[in-house]
Amino acid sequence: MQVKTQIDELQNYLTDASNMQGGFAEKLFIPESAADIGAILRDANERKIPVTISGARTGTVGGAIPFGGYVISLEKLNKIKRIDKETMTAVVESAVVLADLQKAVEAEGMFYPPDPTEWSCQIGGTVATNASGARSFKYGATRNFVRGLKVVLASGETVNVRRGETLSADGNFVELETEKGKLISIKLPTYERPDVRKNVSGYFNEQPLDAIDLFIGSEGTLGVITEIELLLLPKPEGFFSGIVFFAKEAALLSFVDEARAQSFATRKNPVASHHPVGETPPPLLRQEGRQSPGSEGIDATLLEYFDAHSLKFISEKFPETPGDAAGAIFFEQETNAASEDALLERWNELLEKNNADLDRSWFTTNEQDREKMRAFRHALPVSVNERVVRNKQRKIGTDMAVPDTTFARFLRFYKQTLDASGLDYVIFGHIGDCHLHANILPKDAAEAEQARHLYGRFIAQSVMLGGTISAEHGIGKLKSKYLQVMMGERYINEMAELKRAFDPNGILGRGNMFDAKFVG
Questions:
Q1: 0.90 exceeded by the pTM?
Q2: Ramachandran sector of residue 476 (left: φ over 0; alpha: ψ -120 to 50; beta: rest)
Q3: Tens digits of per-residue pLDDT, 2-21?
Q4: Disulfide check for 462: which of 240, 356, 368, 467 has CB 3.0–4.6 Å away?
Q5: Positive or negative CA dihedral for 131, 273, 212, 151?
Q6: For 258-282, what is each residue's pLDDT tens digit?
């Protein structure tokens, strides 16, 4: 195990993709095993020294940035331990990179669906944040694919949790046992979760609660995840993909509504779910039925939105982008040889009905062209980041999601407020899940201040419309004050009580999710 204390050795571990400033730490530990992590935490816990967990540092909310104490980097825990075609599972250590896992799994003819934008993230980080991405429209977030976890607690003790083995008995408490036999009784928070498909604001508390779900999305505040068992699916035979342009936004939104509704209807068909016999499947696969790859019904894997401003940005790298479109949708559906022709016809009918600009839109069933479409999608955040760097500013980006019933109102509020502000902006993202990112691009300090005020208004509006302040990026340190706006002090205190059950001295992820004063 390496231990580093020199400032120049720590420097790379004091920042993440949030660009939050001011991070500092006393020591950096680079352990090589769960036993090493246990020893570090026992020492830190006895001395009440805060500990920040560091992965790939691709998070955007400052969760990996320390403000004192120790940093534990998990970079050496990077082994893919097992890929099992018979049980359709993989067992990995926390620092395995998502892109590496997906390549290894696909080489075995299987498929791991979660696809956050930054594929250089580590699997442990995706579990700690319950990461999602574009394909969550069909497959849900990371939570749906986690079957088992090994977690080192603040005391240095280890717990092994498997889906389906430890459930809340009465709706109020769940009890976990460590490897050494210590029982931990956890009182569950009582807040109601927003009626949205994506939400990473606060600890999970759906009833009945499976204990494994407490750690998924807990942002390093309850324990250190060292090993993960993941559910895999069969690799789809093929995809039909399209980037479709619309002259009018009303037609675009009508297309999305119908594509979403038809996808949900298709998934209710009684089909066999893919999970090991005798195992309790995760929430996604416990649904009434999940559409198998290649069905002839419309069942989009993803529905991604680009507003007119986004298309102008993308045209810098893709000049063939129509300059007069009101917006575009990127969609995909899994296919096989038997279903492909019927599916193309169904999508074409839906697009014609909603007046899509078919002559200038792009479609493919070819893997190479599909990668170009994904490059089109990823060109937007790259272009946005280049612009803000040129302006010597930071973008202000939203991550709110709202219920289906209030989505149109929220999108109107975004556009009307941003248009009135005179600020540069783009709106894009996961429209299938009623979850869009508005990125505001200030040119100077005065515009940056104006953008921050607008961000606060968007937070308030999303909460008022029954939504969540964070659908996929998490809370970290940057959004903790907004979580208090969404939850209220009573429920923040309930979250703090849950944390104390695992971490009585409040050393783990101090400042993540809520202020340390609630734990002290």
A1: yes
A2: left
A3: 999 998 899 999 998 888 88
A4: 467
A5: negative
A6: 999 999 998 875 333 333 333 333 4
